[in-house]
Write a structure and sequence with these properties.
The protein is mainly beta. The chain has one domain. Helices cover 9% and strands 34% of the residues. The strands form 4 sheets. A 4-stranded antiparallel beta sheet has the order 3-4-5-6, with no helix packed on it. Strands 7-8-9-10 form a 4-stranded antiparallel beta sheet, with no helix packed on it.
Length: 161
């Protein structure tokens, strides 16, 4: 199934995200089995700028830094990077840097983006599973969050017995 964004199409979900100022949108595009990240103005005024693909790259899951000056991506299994976003004189992504010591899980193309960046502090939030790293979509589905509500009332009742 093909998905469309402006003039772009993708065979996998596009993981689109707006820049903090709402003037740019970054998304994942998969064509003929090749995946990369593209950025374009919003509303669209020019062709998108897509990261050139190098050997082993499969850039996906873009997320903006809090100030909109950098874009975080998952470029390949086990790696996490950030790119500087340049808007003038032309839209480009450069200064590719590894983000070291990330402990959260990453995901293959087409999977939900497993991390986000907080708007205020720019801290990265991500899903982590002790003792695991890399891609494993089956174990992604096994992760769960348990919420306990009303525990204080239950505790008070037990103490009053």
């Amino acid at each position: 199934m093909r998905q469309r964004f402006g003039g772009s199409t993708s065979t996998d979900p596009m993981s689109a995200t707006f820049s903090p100022n709402g003037r740019l949108v970054a998304y994942t595009r998969t064509e003929r089995g090749k995946t990369t990240v593209c950025v374009e103005p919003f509303p669209a005024t020019t062709a998108p700028y897509c990261l050139p693909q190098s050997k082993g790259d499969s850039a996906k899951h873009p997320r903006w830094s809090a100030d909109g000056a950098r874009l975080y991506i998952d470029p390949r299994i086990g790696d996490f990077e950030s790119l500087r976003v340049v808007t003038s004189p032309a839209l480009t992504l450069d200064s590719r840097e590894a983000v070291k010591h990330h402990l959260f899980r990453l995901a293959p193309p087409g999977e939900r983006t497993p991390y986000d960046v907080t708007a205020m502090s720019g801290k990265i939030l991500g899903l982590t599973t002790p003792g695991e790293n890399g891609y494993d979509s089956k174990s992604l589905m096994l992760n769960k969050i348990s919420m306990v509500t009303g525990w204080f009332e239950d505790l008070k009742q037990k103490l009053n017995r």
